[in-house]
Design brief:
- The chain has about 210 residues and is of the alpha/beta class.
- It has one domain: Domain of unknown function DUF4159 (Rossmann fold, 3-Layer(aba) Sandwich).
- Helices cover about 40% and strands about 15% of the residues.
- A 7-stranded mixed sheet has the order 2-1-3-4-7-6-5.
- α3 links the parallel β3 and β4.
Length: about 210
């Protein structure tokens, strides 16, 4: 009987929520709301070019309750401080180890804060550089050289980092890439069409990977 209930729960979760994504509103004063056109553009691109039919209404969530569990992938971005309370740490950990996926995009200035907060969530798990042959770089679109560089800040190479739990990638963190900038409307950052398409392709890969895994 329990197995039947579990199956029905999973089936219902998949049918209702599998094609919805959310952006994380966090504490600390950082601009979690940065790049407002980014996710709508990414959803449109992903639906048009990969096997997704994501709801175009991007939800804003917090970690104060279990509503985060309604979304298979959550995005977080910003330039400044980010802070998780003890309750939020607990909720985020439960979400991630139960099958959720978090993509963090450093808009420049988020790095030291997000590393500190992730350490609170998983004290014993280290962020690892994602190898170029990892499946996240090889979904519908292939990136043999790994994470693409979208926006220049410090002339450092773009790097993709991740947290793995029981061999599953649960957090993907793009650093010195600024994928979000490439997802925004062209007039916002004046990125070339080639750069924007490259960013959107990598973003679509992340969504596709998260849904599959």
């Amino acid at each position: 009987m329990k197995s039947i209930i579990l199956f029905l729960f999973i089936l219902n979760f998949s049918s209702v929520f599998s094609q919805q994504i959310a952006v994380l509103k966090y504490k600390g004063g950082g601009d979690w709301y940065a790049n407002p056109t980014a996710l709508p553009n990414l959803v449109q691109f992903s639906n048009a070019n990969t096997n997704t039919s994501i709801n175009k209404d991007i939800q804003t969530i917090t970690l104060n309750d279990d509503t985060v569990n309604n979304y298979p992938i959550v995005f977080a971005t910003g330039h400044g401080n980010i802070f998780f309370t003890n309750e939020e740490v607990k909720n985020l950990k439960n979400y991630l180890i139960s099958g959720g996926f978090l993509h963090i995009s450093d808009n420049y200035g988020l790095d030291k804060y997000i590393r500190r907060e992730l350490k609170k969530v998983f004290p014993d798990i280290q962020l690892q550089k994602i190898p170029n042959n990892h499946p996240i770089y090889h979904q519908t679109f292939s990136f043999p050289k790994g994470l693409p560089k979208i926006h220049e800040h410090d002339k450092k190479p773009a790097q993709g980092f991740g947290l793995f739990y029981k061999n599953r990638l649960i957090v993907f963190y793009d650093y010195e890439s600024d994928l979000n900038d490439g997802w925004e409307d062209a007039v916002v950052h004046n990125n070339s069409k080639e750069t924007r398409v490259k960013a959107l392709k990598m973003g679509a890969n992340i969504i596709e990977y998260a849904f599959k895994h």
